[in-house]
Amino acid sequence: MSQQLERYVWELEKCSGCGACVACCSKGVLHFEKDHEHPIHREIDRNLGLTNRRIDTCTRCEAYCEKVCPRLNRIDGGDIISVVSARTSLTSERSKFGDLLSDVINQMLISALEGDFIDGAIIHDVDRWPWATFSRIVTTSEEIYASAGHQLIWSPTLVSLDEAIHERGLRRVAIVGAPCVMSAARLIMASEDRALKAYKDSIRFLIGRFCEGMVNGAIVQKMMEGEMGVAPRSMARMDRSKDDRSLTITKYDGNVKEISLANVQKFLRKGCARCTDYLAVSSDTSIGYAGSRHGYCTIVTWNQEGETLLRMSEVTGHIEITRNVDTALLMDLKRSKEKRRRAQEHDDVLLAMLQALDDQTSATDAIRRYRNLNKEVSQ
């Protein structure tokens, strides 16, 4: 496995769980196991004569996993082009399980699909019997409508990228996911490596979700079943409340249960504590509740691709938009999460100093960065 990925991401519990390293592993030896915080390296044994030896499958590897990891690489987001409030009236008759945000995202995907801008999308979905989330490839409006939409429970979204492109033959893919997924996809799109060109050329739109963090699947059995007595198969959908203070569970019988997000924190993925991106700034367009009144959600566009997707969805009648957005609240939430960047910078300096133990030529730079960081704190 990549030494940097293992030493500076996995061992430090910084893995975002985006799945990019699994999708881009040229040897196909990385995979996620249930409820694991980071990918696992598949071990292979070979018989060499009379001796059974474990093979290091990463020998002479191109380490694409390092190049697309959003925890090892930073990529700057764009500047905001527009901020609108949106809703859709088209999903009430056909959408079976989606929340408001997922309904709006679904309509944007269907608009792009019907307009021949995309031939498929990678989204978040749920196996409703155990309520286990997974990454899903959708290519029709029926599949989009049948999906449960984005969930607070984590799944490695980008693990389906390889299947979408190399097995399903998709060439214009939209990706829907959390900010870390957007950053990883943007790193793939910015790569000049020939082996990643098929992925790079096939990603058409990036649709991000405002995010305060994702929880592990253990929350279903331990909290929902164990503490609340809610059977997973009785749940129609799960979503954050509009004020972002609670997790709401809507059952098929119409009953709604709420869990304070403070009680959910113990299930938060460890890697999410290191994230500084609330608005998914690496996406083409991002969406969330913050800043909009009841019955609407906020859409932010970051580049011309995102603006095209938004305006096309409006013109085709899939969504309705207004300008009534509390942008001050939106920016406060963005800045609040960015405050974690200071801790992230300390982590980066620590990593540089650890690297200097093996490479003395980088020691001077590590010391300089440490002094500059402490100088900023004292000012």
Descriptive terms for the model:
379 residues; eight-stranded mixed sheet; 15 strands
Describe the protein's architecture and organization.
- The chain has 379 residues and is an alpha+beta fold.
- It is globular and about 65 Å long.
- The two termini are 41 Å apart.
- It has helices at residues 3-10, 20-24, 64-67, 100-114, 141-146, 161-167, 179-190, 197-202, 218-225, 261-264, 304-315, 327-338, 341-358, 363-378, and strands at 30-31, 40-41, 44-48, 51-55, 82-87, 120-127, 132-138, 173-177, 203-209, 235-240, 246-251, 256-260, 285-288, 297-301, 320-322.
- The protein folds into two domains: 82-338; 340-379, no CATH class.
- The model has no long low-confidence stretch (mean pLDDT 86).
- It contains 14 helices and 15 strands.
The order of strands across the largest sheet is 7-6-8-9-13-14-5-15
Secondary structure tally, helices = 14
Unreliable stretches: none
Number of strands: 15
Domain count: the total is: 2
Query: Pairing-aware structural class of the strands and helices?
Result: alpha+beta
Write the layout of secondary structure elements.
Blueprint: H1 3-10, H2 20-24, E1 30-31, E2 40-41, E3 44-48, E4 51-55, H3 64-67, E5 82-87, H4 100-114, E6 120-127, E7 132-138, H5 141-146, H6 161-167, E8 173-177, H7 179-190, H8 197-202, E9 203-209, H9 218-225, E10 235-240, E11 246-251, E12 256-260, H10 261-264, E13 285-288, E14 297-301, H11 304-315, E15 320-322, H12 327-338, H13 341-358, H14 363-378
Parallel strand pairs: 6-8, 8-9, 9-13
Antiparallel strand pairs: 1-2, 3-4, 5-14, 5-15, 6-7, 10-11, 11-12, 13-14
